[in-house]
Design a protein that fits this description.
- By secondary structure, the chain is α/β, with parallel strands linked by helices.
- The protein has three domains: 4-133, DNAb Helicase, Chain A (Orthogonal Bundle); 154-213 and 299-456, P-loop containing nucleotide triphosphate hydrolases (Rossmann fold); 214-292, no CATH class.
- It contains 18 helices and twelve strands.
- It has helices at residues 4-12, 19-22, 35-48, 54-60, 64-74, 83-109, 115-133, 151-157, 165-171, 190-203, 217-229, 233-238, 243-254, 261-269, 275-285, 304-317, 344-361, 445-456, and strands at residues 158-159, 174-175, 179-184, 207-212, 294-298, 322-328, 365-370, 389-395, 399-406, 414-417, 419-420, 425-426.
- It has an eight-stranded mixed sheet with strand order 5-4-6-7-3-8-9-10, sandwiched between helices.
- Helix 6 (83-109) runs antiparallel to helix 7, helix 11 (217-229) crosses helix 13 (243-254) and helix 13 runs parallel beside helix 15 (275-285).
- The longest helix has 27 residues, at 83-109.
- It is elongated.
- Mean pLDDT is 87; it is low at 434-440 and 452-457.
Amino acid sequence: MIDLEGVVLAKLLSESPDIEQYAKIKVAFFSEMYKPIYRIIAKTYRHTSEMPTFDTLDVLVKDAELQNSLAALRSMELPEVDIDLAIEGLVDKYTQTEALYSIDGFLDKITMLDTTEIREGLAMLALDLDSKIHTSETVVYADQIHLFKTAEENDAIRVPTGISNEFDAKAGGFYEGDLILLGGERGSGKSILCANLVAAQYESGKTAVYYTIEMTKEETMGRIICILARVSHDHYRLGQLTETESVDLAKARAAMFLGATEHFEEFRASKEKDLVLFEDALLDNYELHPTNQIIIVDDRDLSITSVDLTLQKFSLQYPDTLSMCVIDYLNQITVEGNVDQYDWKEQIYVSKQLKNLARKYEIPIISPFQIDKDGQARFSKGILDACDVAMNLKAEEHIALDIVKARSFNDDYTFVQPMDWECLRINPVTLIQQEETEEEDANSPLARARTKKADDL
């Protein structure tokens, strides 16, 4: 049987030690016999900024026991195996051991847990295991960093919002790994903006995930379909659709499925325009588009662990098209089965974890949060520390997006987007922003946003 721990360390201390291999391992992967050797490698690297070799450690190490361990390691007969493969085997072995230990402990108490606690417990096992095998020793030199990108590479990490042409032009849209927080009072259009973001991703051929906590999956998808079809949401909600609106909704619904054009044409030619029968046949006989989808996660007890697990699934299922995650909303996300909207410590934790997930899955995560009448985050300003972009929303005739934080561009902007309140659709053509004049309405969203900026300064 190959001594993977010894093989990895011996190869690491060869004449051409590689920093990339060192970054893939951590002290927890090694038994007590090999931990001292790993620690002296790490200590030497921290002091010299260079990976040590056996010859280097022969000079530096004074402890007799450690010297003997290094000599034994150096004399080890190494198999013909690539170091990357050896490291992979080492991590697998550690993962198997930790998984069995964790599962054994979980099984000891499973008979005392209810369904929710079992689900949360299993999710926590996966997250705990992930944190144990994650290597945080990310060490890179300047010659390993690519600072300059081609136009194609820049476009690949940008995610246009689709709801504000001016924001997309000035800020570049959202970016992979960004956390975007949307502040607003009740009724300020936070959920409507979220629905528009998801609809815009779908229309661009991408796949977006909408986590809904307060609204049902039907309510959420109902808003989105009305946005896509440009149909009155009130007419849809009250069951008072006109014939034209029924056709428009059927067309938008059929477009989500492969090969459903003929089915839609039959509906359009029919006299009764029965949407229920149309949708039943659609669901029974057609498959969703495999890469261009709207995914709704309806979870009243949404937690960070469940977001992590589902995003892991979706990232594997849609590796090339998953472009955005929307969580409606931050103040309702639970922490280890509990939710306290008034606990600022929990809200800060949730915000930080959402940022970690955005980086982990390389997608922008957008989540609304509550603000007070002065435009400040309720309960704690600390929730904004982890985000890359924060904007406050104000909804009246139009929707004003006031940028209050931006890491990578000037945050002294307010974008006012025309709003069709009948179908809930945001027009991406930003209203022209001019210098304030005497004729400008002092109560307009743009004027109030300018006044707020001046007061803040």
